[in-house]
Amino acid sequence: MSKSVINSAEYQICTRCVMDTTANDIIFDKKGVCNYCREFIERSGDLLNEDHSAKEKKLNELVSEVQKSGEGKPYDCIVGVSGGVDSSWTLVKVVELGLRPLAVHMDNGWNSELAQNNIANLINTLGVDLYTHVIDWNEYRDLMQAFFDADVIDVELLYDNAMLAVNYQMAAKNNLKYILAGTNQSTEGMEMPSDWNWYKKDKKNLKAIASKFGGVKLNSFPSIDTLSYNWYRRIKGIEWLSFLDYVEYHKETCIQILEKDYGYKRYPYKHYESVFTRFYQGYILPEKFGVDKRRIHLSTLIISGQMDRDEALLQLKQIPYPSEKELEEDKSYFLKKMGWDENDLKTYLHRKRVEHSIYGSEMGYLSFLSKTKGKFKKVLGKS
Predict the structure, then answer these.
(1) Would you put residue 169 in left (φ > 0), alpha (ψ -120 to 50) or beta?
(2) CATH T-level fold of 35-359
(3) Residue 378 has pLDDT above 60, yes or no
(4) Which of 59, 119, 165, 225 has its CA 20 to 30 A from that of 359?
(5) pTM of this prediction?
(6) With contact defined as beta carbons under 8 Å apart, do 250 and 187 qualify?
């Protein structure tokens, strides 16, 4: 039985979105509305309800800035592509607006065939250049094994950290000031529960886990820490912008256009372009950690007006896979690729969770920077 099933006497679900008490810090008001959707509306309401002319003005200003920054260069921006709808639509719109992107992809050995086809169709149809960074599979598998042995929740820290590093590295290498990303408020703007993942720039945590479990070295693995992240931003002047916040973005409409014009094939859930990500989100997280990330993704769509709550509730009644058959196929693929057997997986799923912070982390440094920044602002305010 999945660990996401909890005592019904303690269980509560938001009356406006579908976040529930599987998030350990959820709070409900008198009407049963949770802090997650309240915070999302407070933080992003102006952006989600932004006047069309105002959004268009901001978009035009951004395009002009990007074009000016890229004068005399082969490219004027970086667009990271995964094969998912958000990054695919970003690449399409960027090209439509007359920009000259370098598409960047990070291959960790888990791409689905569907994702590879989606990327290839987009690149060929749009006529843009693609840079793919391929991580040595043996090294990446050893890093994943270390994270499994550590029993921490965020195994995807590996991919997310490397993806950030590759995009910033390619921007710096090509002397580009803008990374236009598919990140956005309308489909992923709700704050992730603090116990559902980990700080994505925590290279110290990554290296500590790799060292403790197997002594794995980072050779072909690109990585980024808080210091280098700030160096890219403050010294190199590279901006990571959530590009889809600058355009009208209704996910279902955009998928239909991608399907019609670019031979795009959709995925059942967000981030399922990677075989491991869908197995991780659709099986490992619910079974070992009691986390169903569909809740945060679907809740964001509900609050941004792109999905009906009843439809989301119907989806949540189903397993987070298109079918049991496909789940079993992915499980077999995962076991073979990792060199595990059924007993290895069973043992892993039954071990208790261990917090990332146990192994060393940059969170203390991050907290210090945050406090220093706050004190600096107070000094400026008094001057």
Answers:
(1) alpha
(2) Rossmann fold (3.40.50)
(3) no
(4) 165
(5) 0.90
(6) no
